[in-house]
Amino acid sequence: MKQVAVVVGGGQTLGAFLCQGIADAGYQVAVADLNIENANKVADEINKKHGVGTAKGFQVDAANEDSVINLATDIERIFTQLNLMVYSAGVAKASPITDFKLADFNLSVNVNLTGYFLCAREMAKLMIKHNVAGRILQINSKSGKVGSKHNSGYSAAKFGGVGLTQSLALDLADHGITVNSLMLGNLLKSPMFQSLLPQYAKKLGIDESEVEQFYIDKVPLKRGCDYQDVLNVLLFYASDKASYCTGQSINITGGQVMF
Prior knowledge:
The protein is α/β, with parallel strands linked by helices.
């Protein structure tokens, strides 16, 4: 039986890339996203490459408890078991703290932290039910280790994710389930980062065209974080080779963050 993975937030950008890479590695993939059309599109692309039944799209609101419970039920009905959960859903709103709206702060916490909690809880139940020593991986950020100017909501939620990962690792160790966070550097070409260019330019007092280079100059290895960098590390921590690693926050930052 093939191993089964669910990627929450798998309908576009990094999440879609991870779905494709996980399928290439031999998994069946549940592509879960708030936008069901995007999820189905990614699943269809995987099925065309690897055969019908390799992937299926699911609609989920990761911050809604009933929606996440239904996702777990549907995954069990269609795939029977679950070996890997990747939480890749995320949102960022940038603003100085004096102008930061409570609604934006709550949105960051709900999507980046509460959604991770709900999905990890329900997918862990599924792993335990079928006696699977599974893997739970959160896509986090270097902003979960160091504060980020004008990104208080995002950074607070990502810091919370580190603590949640450590607590989940302790809770699930007896079941052989490992839980780790991947702390990404700046995905400079991602739609999320590109959408924030005007705000970052204003924050830094530079032209929008100079923002990417500003962030590259902060990285010892002198480039941004690529989707492939994330997939490479993810596949290692999803594998048996990383079975003795849990509760960790793994930097993928080109040396920008080293603790």
